[in-house]
């Protein structure tokens, strides 16, 4: 392994989960997300020598974002056919709870809340879904999100505000009578992080 490859692995590979998470939310399909991340990592490796003193995470996620947008442009006819369901495709939320001590009704309520939040995020337009995922799930700063998306910080803040308002509205309309609260707070979103 060359020194560059070792440096690349040590610097970029720790961000693989964040790269996949962003791609999965943007493309709404696990296999397509895997392909986009693989393409992004190949691009990143090619240009890694040009990265100087920058935080690698926003740089890498920008490449992942571009790879996802390229995939969407190339496969536009498939966009309506791709279905992503976080709860169905992943039992991460159920795995977080200790089944031996948890009340089945509470587990079911958490799973239902997660499904509603995930569906509300999935229903957002891509520009809004992107900033929500980067800010609330990946916990990135406004400046880093601006670097990833290639837009001014003010645009990030505006999109984030609008996305949160859309999530609140969507989740208030979905709130069942038996549930005490279902909000799209940052903490609730992070709890449902895949």
Could you please describe the fold and organization of this structure?
This protein is mainly α and 194 residues long. It contains eleven helices and no strands. It has helices spanning 3-12, 16-27, 30-47, 56-74, 86-89, 92-96, 104-123, 126-137, 142-149, 153-174, 186-191. Helix 7 (104-123) crosses helix 10 (153-174). It is globular, with a radius of gyration of 18 Å.
Q: SSE order, as H and E? A: HHHHHHHHHHH
Largest sheet: none
Q: Summarize model confidence as the mean pLDDT.
A: 78
What integer value in Å does the Rg equal? 18 Å
Task: Name the overall outline.
Answer: globular
Task: Report the sheet-strand fraction.
Answer: under 5%
In total, how many beta strands? 0
How far is the N terminus from the C terminus? Answer: 32 Å
Helix fraction, binned, reads over 70%
Structural class: mainly alpha
Q: How many helical stretches?
A: 11
Low-confidence stretches: 79-84, 87-94, 177-184
């Amino acid at each position: 392994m060359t020194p560059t490859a070792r440096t690349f692995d040590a610097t970029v590979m720790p961000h693989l989960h964040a790269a996949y998470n962003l791609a999965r939310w943007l493309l709404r399909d696990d296999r397509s997300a895997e392909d986009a991340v693989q393409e992004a990592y190949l691009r990143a490796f090619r240009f890694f020598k040009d990265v100087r003193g920058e935080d690698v995470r926003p740089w890498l996620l920008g490449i992942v974002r571009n790879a996802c947008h390229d995939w969407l442009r190339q496969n536009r006819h498939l966009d309506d056919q791709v279905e992503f369901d976080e709860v169905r495709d992943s039992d991460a939320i159920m795995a977080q709870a200790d089944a031996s001590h948890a009340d089945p009704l509470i587990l079911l309520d958490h799973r239902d809340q997660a499904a509603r939040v995930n569906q509300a995020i999935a229903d957002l337009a891509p520009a809004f879904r992107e900033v929500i995922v980067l800010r609330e799930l990946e916990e990135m700063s406004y400046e880093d999100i601006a670097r990833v998306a290639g837009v001014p910080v003010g645009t990030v803040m505006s999109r984030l505000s609008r996305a949160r308002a859309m999530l609140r509205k969507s989740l208030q309309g979905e709130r069942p009578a038996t549930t005490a609260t279902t909000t799209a707070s940052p903490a609730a979103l992070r709890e449902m992080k895949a």
